[in-house]
Amino acid sequence: MKTEWKKTEKNLYMPGTIPVSVMVPPMKYFCISGKGNPNEQPFQDKISILYSLSYAVRMMPKSGLTPLGYQEYTVYPLEGIWDLTEQGRKMQTLEKDQLAYKIMIRQPDFVTDEIFGMALDKTRKKLDGPLLDEVTFETMEDGQCVQMMHIGPFDSEPESFRRMDQYMKEQSLVRTTKTHKEIYLSDFRKTKPEELKTTLRYFVKPCELEMQPERECL
Which residue ranges form the domains of the chain, and what is each CATH number? Predict the structure, then answer.
């Protein structure tokens, strides 16, 4: 039976358009970091590398190798953790050239360092280049989060972030970092901006009001 993340892990990837709390366990990822405008070619090249590696793992049985624990599955969606460079944090308005990011694609539990190495070797035969040397294989845990589905262009995401901020205030939650995660449920190279679906995720923790219980969390 084919494992499809949209069905088996709907609560993690397919929230509604109203903010909710979710606990995200440790997961394995192929990752690559960078900075700059995501509308420019270097960002697109990094996406291509991640997908090439992910499909190299997905298609291993067709090349005569079936990893231990392998089960047919749908490749996971692209994700990204977004931040600003030091210079970008000092600016009054968002400059996309000052964005810093780590983009990633989740891998099934059977993937090991050895499988990662095999995927690199297989991909190098088709796409040899310096970007492959920048890819890392990591386990990351998002932990307690607040997330919601944003429908529409990326530039309108602040509307959804405001709703998430209000939800956190109501639930006595605060962000653990100014970075946030985006999970791209649409292919933004082919989808109209107004139809894009993106899961937005904050990393959070309970607001501590030990000494001043009447004070609001900021």
Answer: 10-206 (3.20.80.10)
